[in-house]
Amino acid sequence: MRYFSVLLVLLLAGCTSTGNVPPTGTAFTLDDCPPFMNCVSSSSTVDRYAIEPIHLAQPLNPSSWEVIKAEALALPGASLNEARFGYADITCYSEFFHFPDYLEVLVDADKQRLNVRSQSLLGFYDMGVNRRRVEMLRSQLIERGVAVK
Predict the structure, then answer these.
(1) Would you list the domain boundaries of the chain?
(2) Is 51 in contact with 134 (CB distance < 8 Å)?
(3) Which pLDDT tens digits describe the chain residue by residue (149 residues)?
């Protein structure tokens, strides 16, 4: 019964990283959030999941992209899964239990905004962890001069 409960929680948590990521380019959108309180996304139209995209000070270029990746990887417990110019898929592990959360960053077509999505792999409620993670990234990028308020 215990294993069934764990499997059920994993299945109900749904997809955590965007499922339609092509092997190259940035001409796609990040997935929306599932109906749980464990996700935020700049592409969401539902208030409880919605978060503002990160507005860039200048159009994305290779040097600003390196700063964005470096700041995202400086987040607590962050490790890189995949990255290419304009897209990064990062896993952030919680300090105490080492639970994985997934953070995605995708440059918008105008190269002036970063769309973001952060979701916990496990559980139905994240106690605001994913929203705080995105806001921390936003403030670090503003501090570095890459993003604006």
Answers:
(1) 2-17+34-148
(2) yes
(3) 555 444 444 444 445 678 778 888 999 999 989 888 899 999 999 999 999 999 999 999 999 999 999 999 999 999 999 999 999 999 999 887 888 999 999 999 999 999 999 999 887 778 889 999 999 999 999 999 999 99
**E strands within the chain?**
39-41, 54-56, 78-84, 87-93, 100-107, 113-120, 147-148
**How many CA atoms does the CB half-sphere of 52 hold within 13 Å?**
11
Residues comprising the chain, all counted = 149
Residue in 7, 13, 21, 45 with CA at minimum distance from that of residue 120 = 13
Q: Would you tell me the crossing angle of helices 62-73 and 129-143 to the nearest 10 degrees?
A: 140
What's the rounded Cα separation, in Å, for the pair 103 and 130? 8
- Distance in angstroms (rounded) separating the CA atoms of residues 85 and 103: 16
Per CATH, the number for 2-17+34-148 is 3.30.310
Pairing relationship of beta strands 100-107 and 113-120 according to DSSP bridges: antiparallel
